[in-house]
Fold this sequence. Notes:
Layout: E1 2-6, H1 11-18, E2 25-29, H2 39-49, E3 53-56, H3 63-68, H4 70-88, E4 94-100, H5 123-139, E5 143-148, E6 151-152, H6 159-173, E7 177-180, E8 184-185, E9 188-189, H7 190-210, E10 220-222, E11 229-230, H8 231-244, E12 254-257, H9 277-283, H10 290-303
Parallel strand pairs: 1-2, 1-3, 3-4, 4-5, 5-10, 6-9, 7-12
Antiparallel strand pairs: 8-11
Helix pairs in contact: 1-7, 2-4, 4-5, 6-8, 8-10
Amino acid sequence: MRILLIGTSGQLGRALLDSAPADLEVIPCNRNDLDLVDVDLCKAFVEFHRPEWVVNAAAFTAVDAAEKDPHLAHVVNCASPAAFAAELAKNGGRMLQISTDFVFNGQQGHPYQPDDSVEPLGAYGISKAAGEFQVQNILGDRAHVLRTSWLYGPVGSNFLLTMLRLHQLKAAAGESLAVVADQVGCPTSTLGLAAACWRLIQRASQIQGSGIQEQRLPPILHWSDAGAASWYDFALAIGELGVAAGLLQQAAYVKPITTADYPTPARRPSYSLLDCSGSSAALEIEQQHWREALKAVIAVLASA
Length: 304
């Protein structure tokens, strides 16, 4: 099976590439290969490679920057996925579009189901919700949307790597590390999410081969690690596990603050926990608790 993997410069793309099953032909595509702002080039790229699947792990994820340039966020997060889908539609291909908990407003106070109404708070979430809609509208049941939350991993730009650096700096200076404690969601390791993505492709292909339509996967799935945390909880655990693994000599004191204490250009959902029970059943895999997933990623960093 021929897979065109978009976004191998990013943290999820790297994890997907590193964990790709040996029986798949994966065509990696990074930012040097394809400019996602060029919608016509996106179509031509798919036409040239003629994949059976496009896995779109690329996105404009700078949430605050999206408020300053919503048009760019829309092109990358909506127009380019729509271009991939439009070309796939010509030859019966399928697509996995990675999306986000930011499509929700965070006001319901209990985990979001995949079929809950979307109501994004800012330009980033709006662009990702629009991308979901376009891909599904173009490809129908050959489109698969997988929403995730608070993504981090051993490479790239993410909260884990930032916090390890700040723990080291603040502890050395004898200063506290202030982190927002009133936004609740769940950290998700790129290692676990990559495994879920490959499992989704495997299950969709099995179902397609069986011809039993009643077994087909839901059009939208949620995947995060298990449990719940605030950014404060996450930062605290990073310090604790970082010391235990020898990445840090000492963790900084983490001071809980409110969202109001740390204003940003973009509004963020105060509660964005995703209900992944249906996805776990459909994909026949279990979630790992976020602390165990974090420990595994930190072990990768410690062994590097």
